[in-house]
Automatic annotation (TrEMBL):
<protein>
    <recommendedName>
        <fullName>G domain-containing protein</fullName>
    </recommendedName>
</protein>
<dbReference type="InterPro" id="IPR027417">
    <property type="entry name" value="P-loop_NTPase"/>
</dbReference>
Length: 202
């Protein structure tokens, strides 16, 4: 797709004045496999114990990937429209996905992965959790905002005001998946705030 094609797609899908706009520049690359190495520090266990890891990073912005991720984020935004939402925010590897599995009723088990302790779901009761992946590595598995509706009554949680809530998993900003995920994540969170009945960030 040329720059004009992508510009037309963007203009057609995001011409609403209520939607935040981004200014993007399309750059043609002869070699799409042109990567550079980026060294980041990943934390396991205590924050003081940092481990340097090297990830491959593209030196160009993948607009097609961004649009694909934004479509997923929009689907999640539609699922939480007029719902009571708990929005989980935080950096990569802080345990957002693991906590959502626990709160949604998954059976958890302590494991050892590559010599490191890890808590992982072994029995998943909620089908919406299929896209919520827990990983022992420092690399992010969550690439777009994901909605997980739960019934408080079925989980044995007594609430006078609420019967159902939606847990929303989000990627970590500036995580290991690149800037495309940051853009889709930011717009997904904005849409979540605009369409839901109520939101509580965690």
């Amino acid at each position: 797709q040329s720059g004009e094609d992508l510009e037309a797609i963007w203009a057609e899908r995001y011409n609403d004045s209520e939607i935040c706009c981004l200014q993007l520049k399309v750059v043609d690359k002869d070699d799409e496999n042109d990567y550079k190495k980026k060294e980041i520090k990943a934390y396991k266990g205590k924050p003081s114990a940092s481990i340097s890891k090297t990830f491959a990073e593209k030196d160009h912005f993948d607009i097609c990937l961004m649009l694909e991720l934004m479509k997923k984020a929009e689907e999640a935004a539609n699922e939480i429209k007029d719902k009571n939402v708990i929005l989980f925010l935080g950096g990569t590897g802080t345990g957002k996905s693991t906590l959502i599995h626990y709160l949604a009723g998954s059976k958890m088990e302590k494991q050892v992965v590559d010599g490191e302790p890890h808590i992982a779901p072994t029995k998943i009761r909620n089908k919406a959790l299929d896209n919520v992946i827990c990983s022992a590595s420092a690399e992010s598995e969550t690439k777009y905002i994901t909605a997980v509706p739960i019934s408080l009554k079925e989980l044995g949680v007594l609430s006078i005001k609420l019967d159902k809530v939606v847990l929303c998993d989000t990627p970590g900003f500036e995580d290991t998946n690149g800037p495309e995920v940051d853009v889709a994540n930011g717009i997904g969170i904005i849409k979540a705030l605009q369409t839901c009945k109520s939101v509580k960030p965690v």
